[in-house]
Amino acid sequence: METKFLKINPADNVAVAIVTLPAGEKVPVDGTEIVLTEEIPAGHKFALQDFAEGENVIKYGYPIGHARNPISKGGWVNEKNIKTNLEGLLDYTYEPKLENPDAPKRNLTFKGYRRKSGEVGIRNEIWIIPTVGCVNGTVNELAAALQEETGCEGLDAIVAFPHNYGCSQLGDDHENTRKILRDLVKHPNAGGVLVVGLGCENNQPDAFREFLGEYDPERVKFMVTQKVHDEHEEGMKLLREIYEKASKDVREDVPISELRVGLKCGGSDGFSGITANPLLGVFSDFLIANGGTSILTEVPEMFGAETILMNRCENEAIFDKTVHLINDFKNYFIANKQPVYENPSPGNKAGGISTLEEKSLGCTQKCGKAVVKDVLMYGDRLKTKGLNLLSSPGNDLVAATALASAGCQIVLFTTGRGTPFGTFVPTMKISTNTPLYENKPKWIDFNAGVIVQNESMEETCERFIDYILSVASGEWVNNEKNNYREIAIFKTGVTL
C-alpha cells in the first residue's frame, strides 16, 4: 500500500505529505480521521489539530516555530502561516547527553592512495593552483595542454582551480585565501600540484611556500610568472616532472577508518529530514564506529538545533568551542546589519520547509548521534577522528570547499531540488525524493527517496555503504563525469 503521509515523531502536531494529497482527502492519523481542507503538496505539512495564534508547531519532536494566525485541523502549514521562534544571541548551558550509536563493526576496505605524509587519497590527480586570480588564464591553459599531451594516462584528472582572490585582501579574508589554498596543496587526493603565482600579489609565492610547512618538493612545485620568460614553457616543464612521479602511483587496500567525509545539504525540501539526511546520519555513525571521520558544517543551518549538538559534545571544552561557533556566526550577521534568521531559501520553502528551526532540525540529522569530538575554524585541517563541526556558511560552494579543505576526501551532498556543481573532491549528490533522481540522472548519484517508498533504512544504508566504497576506490560520481569542479573561498571584508 502506498504511503501517503508520515508523522515523524509521536509528539508532532503536524504530518508530512509523501505524495500530493487533494483537498477533502480523509487521512487516518493515530486513530483519528483528518479531513484535509486544502491540497497539500508532496513534502509539505498539514495540521493534526487546530492551532491558536502563537501556538507552537511541533515537527521532529521539537518546536519549529509558532502559528502566525489560527490554523484549522487538516490545513496546509507553510511559511505563510507559521513564524520562527528564534531571535538574537542566547546563553547556553552544558547538559551532556552522550551515547555511542549502535553501529556494526566491519572490516571493510577501499582502494586508495597512501601518500608520503601518511594521509590517504581516493583520487590521483594533478592540480594547478593560482596564488592570485591574475593568473587564472595561465593555469587553465596549462591544464588543457597537459591533458592533451598525456591523455591523463595514470591519473584520474588534471584540473586547474581558478579563483578571484589572493590580492587586494586584508585581515581575515587574506588569511582565508591562504588557508584554503594551503589545504588544496596538501590534500591527499592530489598526486602532484603546481602552484602558479604572478609575483606582485599580496599572497606572495615565497611567503605562501613557507606558510605550507612541510611538503614533498617532488610533488609540489612553484612558478612565479613574472620571473620567467615563457610561463607556458616553464609551467609545462614543471608539470612533466610532477606527472612523471604522480602517474606511477597505484591504489592499495586501505581500511575504512581512513575515510573522511564531509556532510552537506543544499536545495533541501520536506523530505530532506526524512530520507537523505537521516541516511547520512546512519552512515556517519557507522563510519565513526569503524574508526572513520565525518564533518558537519553550515553553521547558520544549526541555528535552532544547536543545543542538540552542544549536548553531544565530548566535554565542556568542546561545548565552549561549539558555543563560540554558533554565537560568532550570529555576530557576523549582526555586524553586517542582517537578520540572523533570514532562512530558509525560496527553493526550501517551495519544497516544504517553512522556518529555520525546521531546516536546522532536518539538516543536523546528517551527523547522526555520535559524540562531537572537535570544532574546526574555517580553513583548519582535521586533527581528530570522529565527528567534527566546522565553521562555514551554508552557501553550497563555499561550504563544500571548506569541507574538502579540512581534509575530507569526498563530500556527501543531499538535495531535494537538485544541483550539478562539484567542489575539488568527488561531490556525491543524494536525492531526497525519487522524482528528482529520475528527472536528473546526470546530477544525482544515489536515491534516498526509496526510504518512503519500498525500502528500509537498513537496506538503503547497506547499498549506500557499498556505493561509497566503490567511489572511494575510483568510481566517478556525476560532477566528475561532467567535469564540474571548482572552489569558492569565504569573503567577509574589504576589497582594496
Structure characterization notes:
This protein folds into three domains: about 5-85, Roll (Archaeosine Trna-guanine Transglycosylase, Chain: A, domain 4), CATH 2.30.130; about 125-250, Rossmann fold (3-Layer(aba) Sandwich); about 255-480. It has helices at about 135-150, 170-185, 205-210, 230-245, 275-290, 305-310, 315-335, 345-350, 355-365, 395-405, 435-440, 455-470, 480; strands at about 5, 15, 25-30, 30-35, 45, 55-60, 60-65, 75, 80-85, 110-115, 120, 125-130, 155-160, 190-195, 220-225, 250-255, 260-265, 295, 370-375, 385-390, 410-415, 425-430, 445. α2 (about 170-185) crosses α10. The chain contains 13 helices and 23 strands. β12 (about 125-130), α1 (about 135-150) and β13 form a beta-alpha-beta unit. The strands form six sheets. The protein has a seven-stranded parallel beta sheet with strand order 19-20-18-17-21-22-23, sandwiched between helices. The protein has a four-stranded antiparallel beta sheet with strand order 1-2-5-8, with no helix packed on it. It is of the alpha/beta class and about 500 residues long. The model has no long low-confidence stretch (mean pLDDT about 95).
